[in-house]
Amino acid sequence: MHIWLLTHSEELKKANGTGQLICKHLPDHCSLIVWQRNEPSKVLANLPQESTLVIYPTALSLEKNANLNMSIEAVDHVIILDGTWQQARKMYNRTPYLHNYATYEITGQVSRYVRRKNQQKSGLCTAETAIYLLQKQRLTDQVALLESAFEVFNTVV
């Protein structure tokens, strides 16, 4: 599985953003693309629809819709919107090609992330999202590496 971080430019300025942590520790499994409203990513727009998921809660999210012929355990590409909830909503709504992909909503998880104010308990940070997805695909070495890096990062004040 390859993780594509579609990152809001403001995230790159934050010392407490976890998206860059994923790319640093899993460079073979992660690519970061800075979201540009007026210049869509050709790479992301051309990923295969049948094996790509966008992690974003919609009415038709994969976890809620059993009719979709895709399994989170078998996808090849995952797009994570890396930004605040407000930024992610804006990015999704203003990026038409993202609507071509099935969406997946992660539910039933509690965030352990403590470095950002106003963090929603049920809203995972970007690194926690990646860890969840890697666990679903049983990529245990990558899970252990990212989990360890996240724990250290999460304790830095």
UniProtKB/TrEMBL annotation:
<dbReference type="InterPro" id="IPR005636">
    <property type="entry name" value="DTW"/>
</dbReference>
<comment type="similarity">
    <text>Belongs to the TDD superfamily. DTWD2 family.</text>
</comment>
<feature type="domain" description="DTW">
    <location>
        <begin position="1"/>
        <end position="155"/>
    </location>
</feature>
<protein>
    <recommendedName>
        <fullName>tRNA-uridine aminocarboxypropyltransferase</fullName>
        <ecNumber>2.5.1.25</ecNumber>
    </recommendedName>
</protein>
<keyword id="KW-0819">tRNA processing</keyword>
<dbReference type="InterPro" id="IPR039262">
    <property type="entry name" value="DTWD2/TAPT"/>
</dbReference>
<dbReference type="Pfam" id="PF03942">
    <property type="entry name" value="DTW"/>
</dbReference>
<dbReference type="GO" id="GO:0008033">
    <property type="term" value="P:tRNA processing"/>
</dbReference>
<keyword id="KW-0808">Transferase</keyword>
<dbReference type="GO" id="GO:0016432">
    <property type="term" value="F:tRNA-uridine aminocarboxypropyltransferase activity"/>
</dbReference>
<keyword id="KW-0949">S-adenosyl-L-methionine</keyword>
